[in-house]
Design goal:
The protein has 553 residues and is α+β, with helices and mostly antiparallel strands. It has 19 helices and 18 strands. Helices cover 41% and strands 17% of the residues. It is found in: Cytoplasm.
C-alpha cells in the first residue's frame, strides 16, 4: 500500500471557497489512483489549506498529472471553487507542486501538471504531449479574436464581462472596487450638477469647486502652479504623458518661428544656436489635424493640432517659448509668445494641454498599454500552455487585462461612454485619432531605450520618467534574459519552439495587423530577439502603463 500526502490550498479571493465535494486522481508513469473524495467540501474555505491521504495499492511511479473535480454537496447549489495549488508528497518523500490558480466548475475535470516549466521540444511523455496539444485546442476555442474597430488591434470575442471565461473575470473585491470608483465619481458629478450641466464656466475659480472630494497633494500643487511656465514644461517630461516631447534640431516648415520672436525668451542667445546645442524641444500634435469633433449641449466642440516650442534654460528648466494652435501658418494661425498678454498666453497653453489630453488618453494610454496589452495577453492564452516557461513569465502581468479592457469598451468608448459623451472628440473623433496613431506604433517606439534615443532625450536633465524607466527596463531585461537562457541553450532551440513561434505570429497578425513596417518580428530566430521582445511586452504592460496611467491627477 502506497500513501500520498496531498495538500490542497484554496485561493484567498472572496467567494473562492466551496461547499461541494472535491475529488482527486493522481496520474503517474506506472498507473493512477482511484478517484478519491478528499472530504465534503466544507473544508475548502477561502485562503485555507488542508492535508489529506490518498491510498493506492502500489506506487504510481513519477506523478505527472493530477485530476481535480467537484460535485454538489447534498442539496446545495453549485458554487465555483478557486483552487490555488496542490502539493503532493510521495512515499519516497519527494515533494511535488501543482499550481492551479483557476476556477473549477461542477463536474468539470481539470488536469494539472507539475509546476516545473518545460519547452515543447523537451517534452517526452506521450500523455503529456497529448495533454499539451489538447490544452491549446481548448484555449483557442475559449479565447477567440474579434475585430473591435477596423484597422486597430483585435480584442477578445466577448461583449460583456459575463461572457468571459471565469479566470479572466475580476475577483469580487476587484469588481466592487472598479464599480465603486466609477459610480462614486459619477455620483459626485451628479451631486455637483456637473454631469448633465449645460451652463458654461463663469470663471476659472469656479472649476476649483469640482474637485473638493478626492484631493491629493499632487492635485493641490498642480492647482497652485498650473499657470507657471516652468511647471507647464515640467509636465511634458514628468507628467502623465512624457511621450510627445522631443529634441528639435530643425523647425517644422509649418511652424515659422523667427529669431526675433523668441529673442527675449532666450536671454541673449539665438534660436539656431540653442537648437544646435540641443536646448530646444518640440511637441507636435499634427495627428489631431481636422479631427472630427463632438457636439455637447448643442454646441460644436473644437480640437486644435498645436505645435509648442520649449527651451532648456540655464537653470535646466524646460519652458515654453512659442505656441501655434494650427498646423497651417498664416494670419489666422498666429504664433503665441510669452510676451503676449497674460490671458492670450495662458489660453494658448490651455489649448496645448487639451490636445495633449487627447493624445495621451487615446494614443499613449489606451492604444499602447491597453489595446496592445490585450493582444499580448490573448496570444499568450491561445498559444502557450500553462507549463511553457514564457507563459509562466508573462501570465502574472496579464491579470485583469481583458476584463479591464472590456470595461473600457463598455463604459469609456461606447456610444454612451465617457469619451464620446464628455470630450471634444466624440465617438468619431476618438476612433479617427486611434486610427491615425496606430501606424506610428513601431517596435522601436515601444522599446524605451530606442524611444528615448530617437526623441533625442538621452541627456535632458531632471527627466525622471527616463531615469526610472531605463532602470526598470534594465532590471526586466536581465531577469528575462536569465529565464530564457536557462530554458533555451541555443538560437536553434528558439527556432524549434513551435508554440513560441505561434505566439509571436499571433501577436504580429492580430496585434499589429501584419504590418511589417512596424518592425514587429513575425518569428524569433535567436534568444536575443526573443529576450528583447519579451522585455518590451512586460515593460509596456507594467512600468509604462503605470507611467501614463497613475500620473493622472
Amino acid at each position: 500500500m502506497a500513501e500520498y500526502k496531498v495538500t490542497i490550498t484554496t485561493g484567498e479571493m472572496m467567494w473562492g471557497g466551496t461547499f461541494d465535494n472535491v475529488f482527486i486522481t493522481l496520474v503517474g508513469t506506472e498507473g493512477e489512483s482511484e478517484r478519491t473524495m478528499l472530504n465534503e467540501g466544507r473544508d475548502f474555505a477561502g485562503n485555507s489549506g488542508k492535508e489529506y491521504i490518498v491510498k493506492c495499492e502500489s506506487a504510481l511511479g513519477k506523478i505527472i498529472l493530477i485530476g481535480i473535480e467537484k460535485e454538489p454537496y447534498l442539496f446545495l447549489p453549485d458554487d465555483d471553487w478557486f483552487c490555488a495549488k496542490v502539493k503532493v508528497i510521495t512515499p519516497e518523500k519527494e515533494e511535488l507542486h501543482f499550481p492551479c490558480y483557476r476556477w473549477i466548475k461542477e463536474r468539470h475535470l481539470v488536469f494539472i501538471r507539475e509546476g516545473k516549466a518545460l519547452t515543447p521540444f523537451k517534452e517526452e511523455d506521450d500523455k503529456l504531449i497529448l495533454m499539451r496539444q489538447a490544452e491549446l485546442e481548448t484555449q483557442k476555442k475559449a479565447y477567440q479574436w474579434k475585430e473591435f474597430i477596423e484597422k486597430l488591434p483585435y480584442c477578445i470575442a466577448a461583449d460583456d464581462a459575463k461572457e468571459l471565461p471565469p479566470d479572466l473575470q475580476f475577483t469580487f473585491d476587484r469588481s466592487m472596487e472598479f464599480l465603486l470608483n466609477f459610480y462614486v465619481t459619477m455620483a459626485e458629478l451628479k451631486c455637483k450638477f456637473l454631469a448633465d450641466s449645460k451652463k458654461p464656466w463663469a470663471n476659472l475659480s469656479d472649476i476649483s469647486g469640482v474637485f473638493w472630494f478626492n484631493k491629493t497633494e499632487t492635485f493641490t500643487y498642480v492647482q497652485e502652479h498650473w499657470k507657471e511656465d516652468p511647471f507647464f514644461g515640467y509636465q511634458f517630461l514628468n507628467g502623465a504623458n512624457p511621450m510627445v516631447i522631443q529634441c528639435c534640431k530643425k523647425l517644422p516648415e509649418t511652424f515659422p518661428v523667427t529669431e526675433d520672436m523668441v529673442q527675449s525668451s532666450l536671454k541673449g542667445s539665438a534660436l539656431a544656436l540653442e537648437m544646435m546645442n540641443g536646448n530646444i524641444f518640440l511637441c507636435d500634435y499634427k495627428l489631431l489635424l481636422d479631427l472630427p469633433t463632438n457636439v455637447i449641449n448643442m454646441r460644436p466642440q473644437h480640437v486644435v493640432a498645436p505645435i509648442c516650442l520649449f527651451h532648456r534654460t540655464a537653470e535646466d528648466k524646460i519652458v515654453p517659448i512659442a505656441i501655434q494652435l494650427r498646423q497651417e501658418p498664416g494670419e489666422l494661425s498666429p504664433i503665441f509668445l510669452p510676451s503676449d498678454s497674460e490671458e492670450d498666453w495662458l489660453l494658448a497653453k490651455v489649448y496645448v494641454r487639451a490636445a495633449d489630453f487627447i493624445e495621451h488618453q487615446l494614443h499613449y494610454h489606451l492604444l499602447r498599454t491597453h489595446l496592445l496589452a490585450e493582444a499580448y495577453c490573448l496570444a499568450t492564452l491561445r498559444n502557450l500552455p500553462t507549463v511553457h516557461p514564457v507563459y509562466k513569465l508573462l501570465i502574472p502581468h496579464t491579470r485583469f487585462t481583458v476584463h479591464i479592457n472590456l470595461q473600457w469598451r463598455e463604459k469609456i468608448m461606447s456610444k454612451d461612454g465617457f469619451f464620446p459623451k464628455y470630450t471634444a472628440t466624440g465617438s468619431d473623433g476618438m476612433v479617427e485619432a486611434l486610427k491615425r496613431a496606430y501606424p506610428t506604433v513601431t517596435y522601436r517606439s515601444l522599446c524605451l531605450p530606442e524611444n528615448i534615443e530617437d526623441r533625442g532625450l538621452k541627456d535632458v536633465p531632471n527627466f525622471y520618467y527616463r531615469d526610472d524607466g531605463l532602470a526598470l527596463w534594465d532590471i526586466l531585461f536581465k531577469y528575462v534574459d536569465g529565464v530564457m537562457r536557462f530554458f533555451y541553450k541555443s538560437d536553434a532551440e528558439v527556432a524549434l519552439d513551435k508554440e513560441l513561434q505561434d505566439w509571436i505570429l499571433d501577436i504580429f497578425t492580430h496585434g499589429f495587423l501584419k504590418n511589417a513596417e512596424s518592425g514587429i518580428p513575425q518569428a524569433f530566430q535567436s534568444v536575443d530577439k526573443a529576450v528583447k521582445f519579451l522585455t518590451m511586452v512586460i515593460f509596456n504592460m507594467t512600468a509604462q502603463h503605470s507611467a501614463v496611467n497613475s500620473g493622472q491627477v
